[in-house]
Amino acid sequence: MIRAQLRLSDHWEVVSKEVETYLPEHDDDHPDAPDRASDDPESWKTEILGKVMINIRMKRGRFYRCPHCGCWCRAHEYVDREYDHIPDMGYDVKLFVNLPKLHCTNCGRYPQVRFPLARPKVSYTKEFEKSVLRLLCKNTVSATAEMMHTGPWIVSDILDYRIRHAIPEQDLSHVTVLFVDETQRRKGHEYMTVFSDNNHEVIFIAEGKGVGAMERFCDYLRIQGGDPDNIWVVSADMSSTYESGVERYFRNATLVWDRFHLVQAINNTLNDIRKRCLKRRKGERLRNVKYTVLKRPENMSEYDNEKLSNIRLNNPELALAYDMKEEFCEVLECADMYEAQEAFEEWYAWVRIQGCQEMRERADRFKLKIDRILAWFDHRVNNGVAEGINSKIQKTKDAAYGYPNLDHFASMCMFRFGNLVIAF
Ligand SMILES: [Zn+2]
What we know:
Layout: H1 2-5, E1 12-21, E2 50-58, E3 64-65, E4 72-88, E5 91-103, H2 126-136, H3 141-147, H4 152-166, E6 177-184, E7 191-196, E8 202-207, H5 210-223, E9 233-236, H6 241-249, E10 254-257, H7 259-280, H8 290-294, H9 302-314, H10 316-331, H11 337-354, H12 357-368, H13 370-379, H14 383-398, H15 407-417
Parallel strand pairs: 2-5, 6-9, 9-10
Antiparallel strand pairs: 1-2, 3-4, 4-5, 6-7, 7-8
Helix pairs in contact: 3-4, 4-15, 5-6, 7-10, 9-10, 10-11, 14-15
The structure holds zinc ion.
């Protein structure tokens, strides 16, 4: 029965099954017992009620095939191995397996019979691995580890192993459009650059940023069957390092400043203006408006609208900057390049005459590289989705709590948003 559940062939037999129930950790009737009602309702998930131990062995008295020369040979000795299996109803399940070690008289070697339910050299079964991967789709490493009653290092080992083994199968021959985005793993930590393809799936994560990261991607692309010369659009942020990177590594590509980054840049400018106003006016009626001014009108709540009217009354300078940001966002929503160019020139003239210094500087920088902005209308690179990836990665980063090693963060991004084929 258990053998069938585990899907073991009839070479194997289940010798015994023992269940050990742990004594409850808290005695609820004890006067000092903690108030269980106020406990986290999810806590039952992680509570370990006991363990189930299943002893398995290979049927005795058999001849086995030597994996090296194919001759029939006998068991020389037996070794015990212990494997973690999927926890069942709060019980840890452990498989104790007695494995024969053979002695082949033909080739003189001592091969060990493999346990078919687990990969060699690990202490958990393949089903256990699959459960871990299923849980990782929605949970952090530490939460997954807790649910599986195991250590976070085991979870991240499984993740890394699967990623490492999926990479040789990754085919990048289809890549013609490239989205490049850099992100910091955590505040103060070094940068990593995320590369996504035409389908907005993450295809590579490079350490560092700028030209170096592009070079690493270029090498990787060639290994995975892609060709840097096939890439005709690279969408990236406004840092000047990408310009030389694209020129050097993607000779046939046009660099496009994507909408997401343009909006981010002008929002940063607006935020600088807000901070300056806040300082000067000692904060009266300007506190807590940061997220209000950064919002688009369609995303504003009634409360935000009220705040905005307040800003208009009390701080015309910030209100004007807000209007200029909105007008710029509308330039990006034009139907075609000509319309956009006209709208941009109008916006630029307005900012030059009435804008404050920060806004004028931002506009000058845009004006200098207007081709990169207008190129978007030519190539119609859909940034809505790229933005989606960026915010998803941001969320993965927020959930990074519990990653035993920050390097696993890259594995996690590849696992969740990458185009690797990982079956589980
Ligand atoms: Zn042999």
